[in-house]
Structure formats: structure tokens, C-alpha cells
Amino acid sequence: xxxxxxxxxxxxxxxxxxxxxxxxxxxxxxxxxxxxxxxxxxxxxxxxxxxxxxxxxxxxxxxxxxxxxxxxxxxxxxxxxxxxxxxxxxxxxxxxxxxxxxxxxxxxxxxxxxxxxxxxxxxxxxxxxxxxxxxxxxxxxxxxxxxxxxxxxxxxxxxxxxxxxxxxxxxxxxxxxxxxxxxxxxxxxxxxxxxxxxxxxxxxxxxxxxxxxxxxxxxxxxxxxxxxxxxxxxxxxxxxxxxxxxxxxxxxxxxxxxxxxxxxxxxxxxxxxxxxxxxxxxxxxxxxxxxxxxxxxxxxxxxxxxxxxxxxxxxxxxxxxxxxxxxxxxxxxxxxxxx
Length: 339
Description:
The chain has helices at residues 112-117, 128-137, 176-186, 217-221; strands at 41-42, 44-58, 70-79, 84-93, 99-106, 142-150, 166-172, 202-208, 214-215, 256-257, 262-274, 296-300, 310-314, 329-332. It is mainly beta. The strands form three sheets. It has a six-stranded antiparallel beta barrel. The chain has a five-stranded antiparallel sheet with strand order 1-7-6-4-5, with helices on one face.
């Protein structure tokens, strides 16, 4: 071995395995938080990543060495056109001890884009009242209610598509009866991001990372590349034998898929929510995106994914305490991003 150390840290977290491509472009949460609000509200929203810029704001975190001072931070712009709840879905405890769907109640008038997306969907208007009565008669057995929503990508010219994403969003706050009335009230109507989130709060962002294709062990796991010398006849930038790991997972770094993984970022703070795109559009528009045309939010720091990628914004499932009000933004950079 010479001067090579005999032990080194294992490369790559086993918590991220298998490192394979995500199953869907817009993943949905596997778990939802419980909120103490007495008013029912949707626990998530869907937006499209635009790009990044930077702002100056007054630090409002007490205990920070920069409290009360004007500080710099990069921000990510996410365009959030209104979503449309098209159905409500009730879940009950199944015979196997797992949640299962009781029934769905769809809005009678579905937009054309929705029927094109779900070609097999045929809403029987004569039985809608039966489905709703079935939900009302089982209110005591319902575990939770969710809204099936559709996005409106046709409002975002940069995306170049009309087919909406359709996902489920759970309802939190209040009791089951109040949640049902809330869903019936918003069914078929546009819901804005200002109805769900407020400035200054934390959100979790669930999405798919930027894909990098098939990569070797050096880039995929940051394995140290040993110096090339005359005894390296088996090649450079490679790892040794896997070992006899029959029946057990191998933790030896190997080449394979890098990127395009489902990931969750916790506790990203919303610095600003606005319906005026002129406040954020830089000269010449955002690179590879263009101009923002709809309401948007500013997320402190960077987020996963490439431009135009749909991101799922969820109420934080493990939040920490932050000031209730949003910090004061003193400057937003609107200079050209074209270089």
C-alpha cells in the first residue's frame, strides 16, 4: 500500500439508493403535515421553476449576527399560475389496514384539457349525487380528504404545452365536515397561490433533480482518483472488486445513472409572493425561459430541477420557528441575465 491510508470513508449515502431515474416528472408527497388551523386549506401547490436572481433584504432572524442589517441572498423564482380542483377524493381504512379510496366526486363541467389528459375519464353526471351522498354518509370513517387538481400550463408561454399535470393535494385544518364543505366550495374554481401560502413562511419543495445521464464513479460518488503509475494496468478512475455480496446490497461505488432523481428539500423560506411580474422580470427575460406572466414566489436560496420543471410546494412537515412576517426586501436585481 505504501503511503496510501488503509481506510477511507464510504462514498455515497445508502439513504438515496437506488440511484435510478424518477418514475414521474412531478412527484407527489408520500406524507403530509398536520396543521393546527381551524380553517381547512390545501396543503400544497404546484409551480414551475423560472430561474435565479439575487435580492437584498433586512435580516429578521433574532439571534443572528446580521440581525437588522441589509444582507445579500440568492433567490429562485417559481411561476405559480392558478390551479383548478377538478375532483375530491375520500380515503378510508381498508380491510388490509391500509388507506384505500372510498369514492371520487368530480366537478360536472371538466375543461377540455382535462378530458384530453384523462381520455378514459367519463363523468356520469347522473351518479354524482350518489357519490357525494356516499361521502357524507361515511364522514365518521374518512381518514382524510384530498383534492385532485389540474395545473394550467397554457398560461405559461415559456413551457410550450397545454396538457396539465394532475396531482392530489391533501386538505388540512378543521374537521372532516368543514373540509368537505371547503372542497365543494372551491371545486372547479381557480385557486391562487396567495390562497394557500403567505410571505415569510417555510415550504418543502418536492421535485426531480437535473439529469446528468450515465456517469462513472468519480463524478457519481466523488471517489478519489489515485495517481497514474506503472502498476495501474487495470485503468484509472475505477474502483476495485465489489466482493462476494450475494443477497446483500453492494455499497461499493459503481457507475450508473446520475441525476433525474426524486428529492425533497425541507424548510425553504418564501421571501415574496406577488401578482405583478414586472417586479421580477429582468431585462431580456430569464435565460432559457423568457418573461414571467403569472403570479410568482421568491424562494430563498436555490432549488432542485432545471428551468421549466414543475415543482410541488408543500406545507413544511418538520418546520422550525421563523418570524411570522416576511422580511423587508430593499433591492431586487433586474439586470440582464444574458451575460
